[in-house]
TrEMBL record:
Pathway: Porphyrin-containing compound metabolism; protoporphyrin-IX biosynthesis; 5-aminolevulinate from glycine: step 1/1. This is 5-aminolevulinate synthase. It catalyses: succinyl-CoA + glycine + H(+) = 5-aminolevulinate + CO2 + CoA. The lineage of its organism: Bacteria, Pseudomonadati, Pseudomonadota, Alphaproteobacteria, Acetobacterales. Its cofactor is pyridoxal 5'-phosphate. The gene is hemA.
Length: 403
């Protein structure tokens, strides 16, 4: 067995990744629910040290909200640890249906469907849609779409895909106008892009979709919970959710729990429920997770102060960076990218932040971002204090290369 060529291939590939400075090593961390964003970093078998996390996607801190945690505890005591099967085989619980209805209502859609993760909801939904109608589809995909969307689009092998320049409406229209008239068209894009933190003009894209009779598929993963009067995302904030055909989201970021979902007209959701392999053939989300997510969604919808506090903290942190002359990508989102631009240097700065300053901000390297744009992706949340922000700014001043 050890002579199989794949072993040698893995060894060589790993060596190449190491040489390029993009070998990813996990940092074992234990989040402290009473002290978020404080985590405990495991040093050895006997020693742990507290660190401040600056990269978590639990943007509102809903994962440590007592009501959310208690909902999970009560559900696990009543219903057990697991779901017991797929949705078709003993795995559908009334809580699943309640959460799907809540999410559909959040986005102003007729129905919703839960998946085990946001990645699976994108991959399974897009692939299922694009393999329908004998694959007579052409997808128009934003250049910076997430890997899960790309995987779903590529999985539909008979459907054509055209990539348009990132957030470039002129390029998108040019490609739509030159597409064959006899194919079904779908525009796949995101609202908030997670690496640069920029935001799509959803209304304008929907107008182009209407003009060229294209279906719209919007990934709101990094926006749900954070934007709009109830946390329905950028499409809700901009008043255009009703113009989007399919809205996909996650329960693992703004809502702080786990799982993914899509919402749309009832016939689309029913088709995905009956045809999407990524939904049919996997064990469903445990009732404890669903109960926590349902509580979180309901709280976030009701309590706008959480969004107000988040953006107050973001703006405060951005201003501290400006005052210290630390370069970062100016965004209107919750994501604050500090560009380093070289993989090995990015990794070294991240490691020194952790070892010397007790700050956790992992390096974001290729293939997550293009080579030459390596960065620290910072996500201040409502629990980052002014002192934590000042400490981060001081550490960056000390570690970043002097211009």
């Amino acid at each position: 067995m050890s002579s199989h060529p794949f072993y040698a291939y893995c060894k060589e590939a790993l060596g190449d990744i190491e040489k390029q400075g993009r070998y990813r090593r996990f940092t074992p961390l234990s989040r402290q629910s009473m002290h978020y964003p404080v985590y405990d970093r495991k040093i050895n078998a006997k020693e742990e040290t507290p660190i401040i996390a600056w990269s978590a996607n639990d943007y509102l801190g809903m994962g440590i909200e007592p009501e959310v945690m208690n909902a999970a505890i009560m559900a696990i005591q009543k219903y057990g640890a697991g779901a017991g099967g797929t949705r078709n085989i003993a795995g559908t619980h009334p809580l699943h249906e309640a959460l799907e209805a809540e999410l559909a209502d959040l986005h102003g859609k007729e129905a919703g469907l839960l998946f085990v993760s946001g990645y699976v909801s994108n991959q399974a939904s897009l692939q299922t849609i694009l393999t329908s109608m004998s694959g007579n589809w052409m997808t128009f995909s934003d250049q910076q779409n997430h890997n899960s969307m790309i995987a779903g689009i590529k999985g539909a092998k008979n459907a054509d895909c055209v990539v348009f320049k990132h957030n470039d409406l002129q390029d998108l229209e040019h490609k739509l106008a030159n597409a064959p008239k006899n194919v079904a068209k779908l525009i796949a894009f995101e609202s908030v892009y997670s690496m640069d933190g920029d935001i799509a003009d959803i209304g304008a894209i929907c107008a182009l979709a209407h003009k060229y009779n294209a279906l719209t598929y919007l990934d709101e993963v990094h926006a749900v919970g954070l934007y709009g009067k109830e946390g329905g995302g950028v499409s809700q904030r901009d008043g255009v959710a009703n113009q989007v055909d399919i809205i996909e989201g996650t329960l693992a970021k703004g809502f702080g729990v786990h799982g993914g979902y899509v919402t749309a007209k009832r016939e689309i959701i029913e088709y995905l429920r009956l045809a999407a392999a990524g939904f049919i053939f996997t064990t469903s989300l445990p009732p404890s997770v669903v109960a926590a997510a349902l509580k979180s969604v309901r709280l976030v919808r009701q309590q706008n102060w959480r969004r107000e506090k988040l953006f107050e903290r973001i703006h405060t942190f951005q201003e501290k960076l400006r005052q210290a002359n630390i370069p970062f990508i100016e965004t209107k989102s919750q994501i604050v990218p500090v560009i380093i631009g070289e993989a090995e240097l990015c990794k070294k700065i991240s490691q020194r932040l952790l070892d010397e300053y007790k700050i956790y901000a992992p390096p974001i390297n290729y293939p997550t971002v293009p080579k030459g744009t390596e960065r620290l992706r910072l996500t201040p949340n409502p629990y980052h204090t002014d002192k934590m922000m000042d400490d981060m700014v001081d550490a960056l001043k000390a570690l970043l290369p002097k211009k």
